[in-house]
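To: structure desk
From: M.T.
Subject: fold request, one chain
Message: Could you run this one when you get a chance? Sequence is below, nothing fancy, just the single chain.
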Amino acid sequence: MSAPPVTWLFMHLLVLFPFLPAVFAAIPAIPMNFTCHNMCGSIPVKYPFGTSYGCGHPAFARNVRCSSTGKLEFTTGSGIYDVASIDYSTGTMIITDPLMSTCESMQNSGSFSLDRASPFSVMDDNIFVLLGCSTNSPVFDPYQELCATGSSSRVCRGLYSCKGVNGIGLQQNAPVSTCCVYQSPTGFGSSYALDLPKLQCSSYSAIYGFGDDRGDPSKWRFGISVQYNYSYSTAACTDCEASGGFCGFSGVGESFACLCHNGVNTTNNCYGRGSAWSGTWGPKSQARIIIKGLMIWWILLSISLPLI
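Reply: Done. Structure tokens follow.
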């Protein structure tokens, strides 16, 4: 007597069950969380920047990235700093050092530097102020003239009038003889390095604007203004962005890739043109072969299994 149809179905499923994980593993799932985004917190992120590695231009991916807490961060050899704003029309970025002194808060700072090979440079209109310097500090070398005098000393008096100077061991309105102001850090090398231990200074401050009142340090704009090389845009990137993709890079050679929301990386755009980085032998092809093989296996079983 032959077995009922339900028994046959159950037996076939038992035979096919070990192969099912391979089928589902071979079918690529569309990622639920796309790795490239056009915002990081409240800051718009556009090419050549990216929110994670593989997004944007590789020359910038080593320095700028969106953190897990939703903050756009700027990384150099001297530390990690917050990106306050980006002006894409002028190719400038404002970064802030959490240990940098301002009128509200002063504390012993770390050093600041830009990586020599990075596409960033400190803008000339930055005013850097070294605070709480030893009288033996090399910044006071009369032969190097690193410290500005005259009108720039008002910056020192303004900062020393802040109550925050107590954080670096000075009294409010202390003598400005321990303060050094200069327009650009190029005097300390082409890598734009502020080595505070070497300079024998307690802290530094950076000012990129004075707001509406040059005489009121509480209204000054504290931060470091850097310029980046924004000549990396190409026709391929423009075409990619017009199709809704993100310009990025892929592979060992960090070649250009258009990153699409469906999880496919192409060499052109997201309209279906361009070749996939995964090549012709991809998960979808493997899945089709496995499924076809299982169908043949099912037919053979239906024919050859003896009746029970």
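Reply (cont.): The CA atoms of residues 25 and 83 lie 40 Å apart. Let me know if you need anything else for the meeting.
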